[in-house]
Amino acid sequence: MPEIRHSVCALDCPDACGLLVQVEDGRATRLRGNPDHPITRGFLCAKVTKYLDREYSPDRLLYPMKRAGAKGEGKFTRITWDEALDTIANRLRRVAQEWGPEAVLPYSYGGSMGLLNANGMDRRFFHRIGASRLDRTICATAGAAGTMKTQGNRYSIAPEDFVHARLIIAWGANVLATNVHLWPFIVEARRAGAKFIVIDPHRNRTAASADQHLFINPGSDKALALGMMHVIFRDGLEDPDYLSRHASGAAELREFVRDYTPERVAEWTGIDAAAIETLAREYADTQPAVIRLNYGVQRNPNGGTAVQAITMLPVVTGAWRHQGGGMQLSTSQSFTLDRPGLEMAELQKRSPLGREARIVNMSQLGHALTELDAPPVKAMVVYCSNPAAVAPDQPHVLKGLAREDLFTVVLEQFQTDTADFADIVLPSTTFLEHTDLYFAYGHHYLQIARPALPAPGEAKSNVWVFQAVAKRMGIEDAELHMTEDEMIQVLLGSGHQHLDGITIERLDAEHHVRLNLPVPYLPFVNGGFGGPDGKAQLSPDGLAYAPPPESRLGDEKSVYPLELISPKAHDAMNSTFGYLPELDAETAVAWLHASDAAERGISTGDAVRLFNDRGEVLARAEVDGKTAPGVVAVPAVRWPRRSENRAGVNTLIADRLTDLGGGATFYSCLIQVERCADQ
Ligand SMILES: Nc1nc2c(c(=O)[nH]1)N[C@H]1C(S)=C(S)[C@@H](COP(=O)(O)OP(=O)(O)OC[C@H]3O[C@@H](n4cnc5c(=O)[nH]c(N)nc54)[C@H](O)[C@@H]3O)O[C@H]1N2
Ligand SMILES: Nc1nc2c(c(=O)[nH]1)N[C@H]1C(S)=C(S)[C@@H](COP(=O)(O)OP(=O)(O)OC[C@H]3O[C@@H](n4cnc5c(=O)[nH]c(N)nc54)[C@H](O)[C@@H]3O)O[C@H]1N2
Ligand code: SF4
Ligand SMILES: [Mo]
Predict the structure, then answer these.
(1) Distance between CA 538 and CA 541 in Å, rounded?
(2) Whole-angstrom distance, CA of residue 127 vs CA of residue 107
(3) Mapping DSSP to helix (H, G, I), strand (E, B) and coil, where does residue 465 land?
(4) I need a surface site. Which of 20, 137, 352, 472 has the fewest CB within 10 A?
């Protein structure tokens, strides 16, 4: 008889699906979505439906290894865990003695969303040794900062409430690819008559399925939001009662947006003035109206203030009053777990450093590894991330990783490019093999997962590794040797009302437990904003629009005429499935507009080179009008080692930061495209 075990998908996705793993004779034979999970509803995305292939892939890393060739070459020999742990403990100790503990840099992001394995014992370990602190900016900090500016907190409506909306705008949000469990709620709303509009520079599957798709120039969303507010105030479509009770700065905002006429905004955004007028009026006149904003809008130098401006819209129109109205960017702040208690920044005081360590921005890793001084980075420990593929300014990242004097440890499931540059590679468990607690950034259910499958070979969880290294370094502090359940107890012990009644026993019994939020959950129906006066902040300080410097309208003069975006691939999860050759069908492709292709003598299927001063990337052209003229899209992220010249799309992308939140600006890049000569 097959046994069914519960788990949770740990990939970096808002849906945080509940999983059912069918196990026969100790081996998983089927993976499916939990039909009882109110958001998962029994189905999974295409990539995780096939996750057992990844779980049992012959390419899984099974044993600790040490480097046996040049950095980057990928030659390794098997060693024991004893040797691996001793080497790491000795090198980290030596680096700290010689250069100071801040010469050690942790590097991690979203390979797993598990709180214990990616945001728990690792943090305690690095704080306790006094390592540099990593500012984890690569994905969402610009949007978080922009939301905070307007709302003062980051609450969002629940996905279930989208069914009540009568107008839904997916704004820089590729729902069908990156958040597919929202889709059934959108379908239900549309059946009841809702209109679905997509604002995106790329006609992806979501845009192609919409009632209306507005092609927007990358990085011009702030201008569009200001233009919409111009029309709304000009035509008296705002909600004066909501504004007077729950917002401050509305009068200044009204003055400020007078300059943002639809005609002016049309020039920046590439959306014609009449369409901007219609969009604004439809948005203000239709209730409930909801904006599904996603992180696509904030990966450009205007990204933080763009989100700040967009989050003003439902305040101005009072959309927050209605069930199914308002905004969803991330639901994560509703999970008021005791994260500080888990991470224990105070352990820095107990470290040899004795104070707070310096902060290194992960979006500028190339700079950190090649230019940072006092102290330079001399040791790096990478887990849940593949910076050689995902970080901007790839040439400098690879140059830094190739440094002979840099000691690099990589905890991985697969032999990524980053692992190729390691001195020591440690085999990691997958989410099906270890215990963890999961919040979600697209719904309101907290979940626990216990190991559903045995770890293959000698793979270990990150929690185990950081505890073991601490022991080898002679660090016996109890905080570094807690059990996983003790760490979960800490997380649940914040005392916040959203966690009322949620215990580890309940999580184990029910697998997913809804946060203690009212039904329906209307976060701002009666105000409730987090600013000092409890009101939404509409002051337009810092909101003036200028095109991104590195864009066709930008002031950074460039000989490169095309704007490059590299949004998420449908069948990928950042670089997580990059070992699969079949993924190249999506991630080795450059979508070009027919006019740009014709000018360059390029047809579908041609080998092309994309280049700028930073480097060159090889791809295959697809010409089909999925972008507007002047815009090229390359779905991300291909493993550099899968390409002929070991250069992924991030080769072309600068390490410039966003205006708020210090985020990466992946979707702000100028390039030229050429047909490869010899074909
Ligand atoms: N299938 C799949 N799912 C994923 C991921 C994946 O790699 N693949 N990655 C996960 C991660 S880490 C994240 S952060 C989320 C992200 O989820 P999303 O934010 O939905 O994904 P992105 O592709 O980054 O951006 C969304 C859309 O924004 C568009 N866009 C780019 N620039 C602009 C702009 O300036 N303005 C506007 N309006 N739109 C713009 C892109 O063309 C894209 O269609 O998805 C998660 N889910
Ligand atoms: N050009 C371009 N670049 C981008 C983006 C883009 O849209 N375009 N998106 C950016 C965004 S939004 C993000 S979030 C980043 C994502 O960047 P990352 O979070 O670094 O990338 P992933 O590829 O999701 O995962 C990294 C690795 O984690 C490993 N992993 C998974 N689980 C575990 C575990 O439990 N333990 C250990 N040790 N390892 C584990 C996986 O095997 C995988 O190789 O990429 C960014 N880079
Ligand atoms: S990647 Fe997202 S949609 Fe796919 S199974 Fe995981 S949580 Fe669900
Ligand atoms: Mo992300």
Answers:
(1) 9
(2) 13
(3) helix
(4) 352
Locate the ligand 2 atom nearest the alpha carbon of residue 114 and give its number. Answer: 35
Q: Which atom of ligand 3 is nearest to the CA of 51?
A: 5
Q: What is the pLDDT of residues 461-494, one digit of tens each?
A: 999 999 999 999 999 999 999 999 999 999 999 9
In a domain, 14, yes or no: no
Please provide the average confidence, as pLDDT, over all residues in the chain: 97
Our answer on whether the CB atom of 110 is closer than 6 Å to any ligand 1 atom is yes
Three-class SS of 595-625: HHHHHCCCCCCCEEEEEECCEEEEEEEEECC
Pocket of ligand 2 contains residue 298 by CB under 6 Å:
no
Q: How far is the CA of 480 from the centre of ligand 1 (A)?
A: 36
The finding on whether 390 has its CB within 6 A of some atom of ligand 3 is no
Residue 173 structural domain:
141-329
Domain assignment present for 351: yes
Q: Is residue 38 domain-resident?
A: no
- pLDDT tier for residue 532 given thresholds of 50, 70 and 90: confident
Instruction: Give the pLDDT confidence of 234-257 residue by residue, as tens digits.
Output: 999 999 999 999 999 999 999 999
Cβ of 138 below 6 Å from ligand 2: yes
- CA–CA separation, 29 and 542 (whole Å): 55
CA of 242 to the centre of ligand 4 (A): 33
92 CB near ligand 1 (under 6 Å) = no
**Under a CB-based contact definition with an 8 Å cutoff, are residues 586 and 570 in contact?**
yes
CA-nearest residue for atom 3, ligand 3, is: 45
pTM value? Answer: 0.98
Which residue type does 504 have?
I
Domain count, the chain: 3
Residue with tokens 């966003």: 658
Domain presence at residue 450: no
Ligand nearest to C-alpha 578: 2
Pocket lining: 300 vs ligand 2, CB cutoff 6 Å: no
- Which domain CATH number covers 128? 3.40.50.740
In terms of residues, how long is the chain? Answer: 679
Question: Nearest Cα to 423, choosing from 88, 99, 123?
Answer: 88
